Amino acid sequence: MKRKQIELKVKELYWLLGRKSQLSIANKFLIYKTIIKPIWTYGIEIWGCASKSSQAILQKAQSKILRMITSAPWYVSNLTLYEDLKIPYVREVIFEKYAKHHRKLETNPNPLLHPLLDIGQPRRLKRTQPVDLL
Hints:
Number of domains: 1
Distance between the termini: 26 Å
Largest sheet: none
Order of helices and strands: HHHHHH
Helix content: 55-70%
Number of helices: 6
Radius of gyration: 18 Å
Strand content: under 5%
């Protein structure tokens, strides 16, 4: 998704997660965990090779949504917000999901999946691959 598309989706959720919403912070956070997070984590195992700017777009959207949920003022840092809510950053989620996916591939008995673990192929132009996360 492009940045503008993400911003529009965040604005659409304001009625549910914003300051004037009647929901408690616990319920807003539950909506985030059950509806919003699975959307952006779908297929995240291959995001290790995505550019840092693409990952930054997701990180900004996540920070905006968390600020909306908590009604945090401008002077509260994102670091404080993430530590208090015990939410990992997008980069950490990408690493955890890829490591789990890689472990599953190693133990899978299907011989057709073993070439996916091969990292012996030469690379062009220093392109990153999800294997670089390990």
